[in-house]
Design a protein that fits this description.
5 domains; Four Helix Bundle (Hemerythrin (Met), subunit A); 17 helices; five-stranded mixed sheet; Leucine-rich repeat, LRR (right-handed beta-alpha superhelix); 30 strands; globular; seven-stranded mixed sheet; alpha+beta
Length: about 675
Amino acid sequence: MEILEYLGKFHPVVLHLPIGALYLTFCLVLLEKFFKNDYTIPVRFGLLFSFVFAIISCLLGYLLSLSGDYGQDILNLHMWLGISTAIFNGFLLWFHYKSIYKKHFISFFTITIILLTVTGHFGGTMTHGEDFLKPPLIKNELVFNVKDSVNFYSEVVRPIIDNKCVKCHNPSKSRGGLLMNNRENLLKGGKSGKIFLANNSLESNLYNYLLLPLDDDLHMPPKGNAQLKQHEIELLKEWIDSGANFEKFHKIQETEDQLIKNLASFFPKPQLIVSSPTNTDIIKLQDLNFRVERNSNENNFIEAKFLGKDFQTIHLNALLKIKEQLIKLDLSHTNLNDNLISKFRRFKNLQYLKINDTDISNKGLLSIGNSIVSLNLNNTKVSYEGLVPFLKKSSAKNIYLWETNISIENQKKLSMSSISNLNFGVSDFSKGVPLSPPKPISEQTMFSDSITIEFFKPLGNPTIRYTLDDTEPDSLSVLYSKPFSIYNSATLKTKAFKEGWLDSKVGVMDFIKVEGILKNYVLKTTPDNRYRHPKKLFDGIIGGINFRDGHWNGFIRTKDYVKGVNERNSGDLVLEIDLTDKKYSSIGFHSLESLGEYIMFPESIELYDISQNTNKLIYSKKLAKSSLGAPNVTKFFKVPILKTPSKVKLVVKSNKKLPKGHPAEGEFAWLFIDEVLFL
């Protein structure tokens, strides 16, 4: 009996042979039917092969059933279905051999395939459980990916030190002779010796200096600098007391509740899972004058901003097509009213809503759902009487209520009673408060013929002045009174003025007149897989300051790069462009610099004439390096085409290494480019 049961264990091995053979033979029969090919011999062989092994599989299955490890009801069902499949397989072989029932052969075969599929299903159910073929349910629920282990140094300690310590302990500024920009310097310590002792946090200055009174000269970080939060201090202590290992992963036990809470900010953020919106719905929104962007490359959420003023039912209905995916919506400066907003309850996942300068009143306020995290109600008709009931049901963290008719006394009442952070802006105490830079309504910066510039109505109704000649605007510059047009590439600089307020900072926007979009080109280098959107380089759409917005392509030199061998991995942008169809005066590309994200502007630009299989340099420019602490900024770079070549090669060389003094000094820098076009 034991030998028979042992032989039965070969049932799962053997049964896949007739399954595969029968499916393959069925495909051959269909091909023979529809393409009029002759597969007589392979079909007959396939039927014979599957029949023989089906019989063997049935016998071995019976032997396996003798173990008694399976439920009798489902076992009997699986067994008789399997036997039926083998019998039908035998009939098919007989019909084909005798050339009978030709008209019904495919029908009989289809029944056999169905029997085989059902038999396999119940076999899988016995082995893997009833839900083994059940499709996963995509639910609109929060999913928190808790890690079961963590590299304390690289994932926790290093980010804390970079954010709170490296500012004062780097190659450019080493207080106490201590550098903290890499592990080697952490181990070395400073003038006072080593800063930590493994397994002993109380004898480690890295920890105990954090516990000193804020006014103590030895307290770190010094008074006036960003201080470590309590959970960050506890995590540093945990790392030291667990051995201060730079490579070891710490296993997180279920009993370590406090540790899990402290690590929460270092875990992946909770994500709401939704399906992807359809291209048809997105295109429809764009046609209706919406700017539509993905919230992140890691999810399917959508951010939408209406660029017009006349918001109607047709626009609302288009938004409702993506009601599951819509997470951020901006309808400011439109004619949105209480009637239109009444359907906003259907936006179950909407978290960020801007409806500044609209006709929304208390009635419309009650239509806003509980999913909202941030709500902008500046310059609307909402009042104290409407906010009281709204705040009782709302879980919004931040609500902005500038220029609403809510008295100072009622502002205090609302602030005292609400868990939301209410921002009422400035009123009687505006003296000394800086104005915000003027902001154009349209975010479009590229045009072919002309573009019209119109500004949002700023809070406080200040005077707006501007320049187009790259000079700084002042009180004598051109006064903005109505929309105006730009016909050539220009840098628009704006500034707001108002008595009793500080002048705004200068707002800067580059408007680019485009001669054409690249069509005939070959991209010779490869963006990194994480930021690879090659078609976005030539779509005529400019990305924002967020390099993750889906418009940017990120280039970085790989560790395995060898010059002359794998040039695609150089970290540069190398682009061959055919100019046969039309002559252009210049090529432009749009780049990003964000040193905190390890992204730098190019080091140099080169343009080669490759018309006659040559490689002749016709333009070269070396660019100045930005200093540490420079703001995140985007910039258009213009490359003149000095002669009339029929084919050119554009080489945009990255700054390969991050500069001295950077927390990641010496590591490869990123080159981010989102658009290449003719100017």
